[in-house]
Design brief:
Elements: E1 10-15, E2 21-25, E3 31-34, E4 43-44, E5 55-60, E6 63-68, E7 75-77, E8 80-82, E9 84-86, E10 92-94, E11 102-107, H1 114-124, H2 129-147, H3 153-168, E12 172-178, E13 184-191, E14 195-197, H4 206-215, E15 219-221, H5 229-232, H6 235-240, E16 244-258, E17 261-278, H7 286-332, E18 343-350, E19 358-364, E20 369-377, H8 382-398, H9 404-417, E21 425-433, E22 437-443, E23 448-452, E24 455-459, E25 478-481, E26 487-491, H10 493-496, H11 507-517, H12 523-538, E27 547-554
Parallel strand pairs: 3-4
Antiparallel strand pairs: 1-2, 1-11, 3-5, 5-6, 6-9, 7-8, 7-10, 10-11, 12-13, 12-17, 13-14, 15-16, 16-17, 18-27, 19-20, 20-21, 21-22, 22-25, 23-24, 23-26, 26-27
Helix pairs in contact: 1-2, 1-3, 2-7, 3-7, 7-8, 11-12
């Protein structure tokens, strides 16, 4: 029978495996959790690994309890397996599986309104010292709960700053955040009485702030008239007639687990500074100093989490942009090859990162000639990908009616003229006609592998510099003749330099053996066999460089049909 006692406002925050979040109020007791709504669950979870009757939240005796109702892999609270457990605000509930849904329990009463807390702090000032200290400790616990709540970041930080001003009886305060490039950026400024201040209206003491940053500890000056000359005579302090200030560094603190106990390690990073000042001398009790320091620790934690969220959003944005770049780059590569009367073609590109620096293309110049190119731009990632896109556009525009040497010379001058690009490219560019005549330039690229009469030999070694090294480099067109059935295998060094777990290279001999094994197959089957040989060699090792293959088989010249039209 459901518990008839009133249920305080509570909710479950659901974090899906992909990171999306939503909130569901807990307004029933028992509140049932499990797979599918058909099983009577108030919170159905779409995961086949979660039991139909998984868990329940029961409110009894003024507390919420989580009960395991039959979850196959168990129910966990903060990483500990439980059969039943009283819940506290911010407890995390999981179900014994990796990459599964997480639930975070929240009780609304933990989020006391800021005006109420400030009012209670003001009232506490009228109590005797002992009672005030106890009251301040109580309010600190409530303040901590508010700082760890899921209110908007600006509201949480405002609450922290207002609270610090009230505790210290300061006139104003500012929260400064460290910027990635160095320096400090004011996040927000407040005045006594929870009043907003424009951040540009404050000129905090840079002397105090720099001391706090350098020492990585609080700098408190209760009466500047008694301070050392360098501090008392600082320009900002004199101009603003300040008498007291507090500068507390906000530190990122690493927690280490040891023998089940949490040990706090040394601070690893300065996240910002909490600065407060006044035109009156100050007097802090020991408990007030401790409370202020604790608030700064909590504020640092909040700021760190906010920065992590910001970084994660930036990572997701970059990931989306890289996905878009990858899709564009793949779309620029040939998705398939047209049927040539004199040629069969297969090609593939596999980037080791989201985008890569390898490129290949096949371009029909006219009915008699077909151009092809394979290139490897130095480096990997976006920079290399941008240069490959430039190469593709250049070769597509210049190939028609041009000699290979002229095209390479033009691209080389372009790259050298843009030295800030800091990229060079090895490249094999050829034009094959229907009679089997091949004109080509090998600009610093690996030699091709030629399958001829059942034998596999490296051919067409580099005779020119890679593009982008020397603006006066000369390029000369070489020529060769292919016979029907000859197959050219062009590749980038991601294949021959592929590494196995013993850090051995696949090598040109490994490639040659793979080609010999599939020499009699179709160009598509030969390509698949080479890739399979590389994958079998590396045995699961991550791909260290971009992999590109371009395979061309010359079929021979097909003479035109002599039968006049209409006489067939």
């Amino acid at each position: 029978m459901p518990n008839a006692s009133p249920i305080p406002a509570a909710m479950l925050e659901i974090i899906a495996p992909m990171g999306t979040r939503r909130q569901v109020p807990v307004n029933e007791s028992p509140f049932l959790i499990g797979r599918t709504a058909e099983a009577g669950n108030h919170l159905p979870l779409d995961d086949v690994r979660i039991s139909r009757k998984c868990a329940a939240l029961v409110y009894d005796g003024g507390v919420f309890r989580l009960e395991d109702r039959g979850q196959r892999s168990g129910v966990y609270v903060n990483g500990q397996k439980v059969s039943a457990c009283a819940l506290r605000d911010a407890d995390t509930i999981t179900f014994g599986m990796r990459d599964s849904t997480q639930l975070i329990f929240h009780v609304e009463q933990a989020e006391k309104a800021l005006p109420d807390l400030l009012s209670e702090l003001d009232k506490a000032s009228s109590l005797d010292a002992g009672a005030r200290d106890l009251r301040l400790l109580s309010l600190l616990l409530e303040a901590t709960a508010l700082l760890q709540s899921h209110l908007p970041l600006e509201q949480v930080l405002q609450a922290m700053l207002d609270r610090a001003i009230t505790i210290t009886d300061a006139d104003r305060g500012v929260l400064l955040e460290c910027e990635p490039a160095g320096g400090l950026r004011p996040l927000l400024a407040r005045q006594k009485g929870a009043v907003h201040l424009p951040t540009e209206s404050l000129a905090p003491s840079q002397t105090a702030i720099q001391q706090a940053l350098q020492r990585r500890e609080s700098v408190v000056q209760l009466d500047l008239s008694l301070a050392e000359d360098s501090l008392r005579d600082a320009q900002s302090i004199v101009a603003q007639e300040l008498r007291s200030f507090v500068a507390i560094p906000l530190l990122s603190v690493t927690e280490l687990e040891s023998s089940g106990a949490t040990l706090v390690a040394a601070p690893t990073e300065v996240l910002g500074v909490l600065y407060l000042d006044s035109r009156r001398p100050a007097a802090f009790s020991s408990i007030e100093r401790q409370i202020l320091q604790t608030l700064a620790i909590e504020a640092g934690s909040v700021l760190e989490k906010a920065q992590l969220v910001k970084k994660e959003k930036e990572r997701q944005r970059m990931s989306l942009e890289l996905d878009t770049a990858r899709n564009i780059q793949q779309a620029l590569l040939p998705a398939g090859f047209q049927q040539f009367t004199h040629l069969q073609v297969a090609g593939v590109n596999r980037s080791c990162l989201a985008v890569g620096g390898d490129y290949f293309d096949v371009i029909e110049l006219d009915a008699q000639r077909t151009a092809f190119v394979i290139a490897d731009v130095s480096g990997k990632g976006l920079g290399a990908a941008l240069v490959t896109a430039m190469l593709q556009g250049t070769f597509s525009a210049l190939s028609l009616g041009q000699q290979p040497a002229n095209v390479c010379a033009h691209v080389n001058r372009y790259l050298c003229a843009h030295a800030a690009v800091r990229r060079h490219a090895t490249l094999f560019f050829g034009i094959l006609d229907t009679a089997g005549r091949l004109e080509y330039v090998n600009a610093g690229h690996l030699p091709a592998m030629l399958v001829h009469a059942g034998r596999v030999e490296p051919v067409f070694a580099a005779e020119s510099f890679a593009l982008g090294w020397f603006d006066d480099a000369e390029y000369h067109t070489a020529a060769a003749t292919l016979e029907p059935g000859d197959t050219l295998v062009l590749f980038t060094d991601g294949i021959n330099e592929a590494l196995n777990p013993e850090r051995e290279q696949f090598g040109l001999q490994g490639l040659r053996a793979a080609i010999e094994k599939g020499a009699g197959a179709s160009v598509e089957q030969l390509q698949a066999g080479i890739l399979e040989a590389v994958e079998g060699f590396i045995r699961g090792e991550p791909q260290g460089d971009d992999i590109t293959l371009l395979i061309l088989r010359y079929l021979g010249h097909s003479p035109p049909d002599p039968t006049p039209p209409g006489e067939a």
